[in-house]
Write a structure and sequence with these properties.
Layout: H1 3-6, H2 10-22, H3 27-32, H4 36-50, H5 63-76, H6 80-87, H7 91-109
């Protein structure tokens, strides 16, 4: 395990998220490219589909962090390696999170969005 992952806890991820929300300069909107209201709306829709259970070996990545990682990827096109340093989540797990959350977003929003192929 990479050293930076060892000190990742649910609390540290939650704290980073709270700090971003509390920034008065609109950093949350800039970071996620959407309002906190829209973020919470999406989270409420996908929460049951993207939530994971803790195990005795590790704490699960919270659903709101899973959504935040995915939205950051979709908004910026950052590499999984870059997101790895930002969120302290392995690139391999980020690649799974992005696929799972995108599938969940597509499932819950399919009647609200139209995708032209």
């Amino acid at each position: 395990m990479i050293a930076m992952h060892r000190n990742r806890t649910r609390h540290s991820m939650e704290q980073q998220f709270v700090e971003l929300i509390q920034e008065p300069s609109g950093e949350f909107e800039n970071f996620h490219r959407m309002s906190l209201t829209d973020f919470n709306y999406l989270l409420s829709k996908v929460l049951p589909l993207i939530s994971k259970q803790d195990t005795h070996l590790r704490e699960a990545i919270p659903a709101k962090i899973r959504l935040a990682v995915t939205l950051r990827f979709l908004a910026t096109g950052d590499s999984f390696k870059s997101l790895h340093y930002l969120f302290k989540i392995s690139s391999q797990l980020i690649s799974k999170i992005v696929v799972d959350v995108c599938k969940a977003l597509n499932d819950v929003l399919k009647d609200e969005i139209k995708v032209d192929v």
